[in-house]
Amino acid sequence: VQLQASGGGLVQAGGSLRLSCVASGRTVSRYTMGWFRQAPGKEREFVAGITWSVITTYDADSAKGRFTISRDNAKNTVYLQMNSLKPEDTAVYYCAAGEPWGSVVSTRETGYDYWGRGTQVTVSS
């Protein structure tokens, strides 16, 4: 599975971005998909994930209430809609594919086998 994330960019605080993650090489409709991010000098952290059955999980501190993860299986694509962006959301955002037919979303990097290259999100104050 190859994953390509896009949609990042520079946005002012309070603005919105929608990230896309297009998968190729294999259909990912049965996989749990996740978004992680890594800010400069920090470890990569979980942001949001979605199972094949559209069960979603969000990191409470960073994403819940502001971000929405969704998937379009017909397009083999997962999205991350980010609203009310803050400067602390600045990071490289990565999408990842994890366990097929999973019933819960893993919040750990080890729960994902395939990773995209990431897309930079910069939020100015």
Annotate the secondary structure layout.
Layout: E1 2-6, E2 9-12, E3 17-24, E4 31-38, E5 45-50, E6 56-58, E7 67-72, E8 77-82, E9 91-100, E10 112-115, E11 119-124
Parallel strand pairs: 2-11
Antiparallel strand pairs: 1-3, 3-8, 4-5, 4-9, 5-6, 7-8, 9-10, 9-11
Question: In percent, how much strand structure appears in the residues?
Answer: over 45%
Unreliable residue stretches: none
In N-to-C order, the SSE pattern is: EEEEEEEEEEE
Overall pLDDT score: 96
**Overall helicity:** under 10%
In whole angstroms, how far apart are the ends? 37 Å
The secondary structure category is mainly beta
* Rg value: 13 Å
Shape: globular
Count of helical segments? Answer: 0
Let me know the largest β-sheet: 7 strands, mixed
Strands, total number:
11
Short description:
The protein contains no helices and eleven strands.
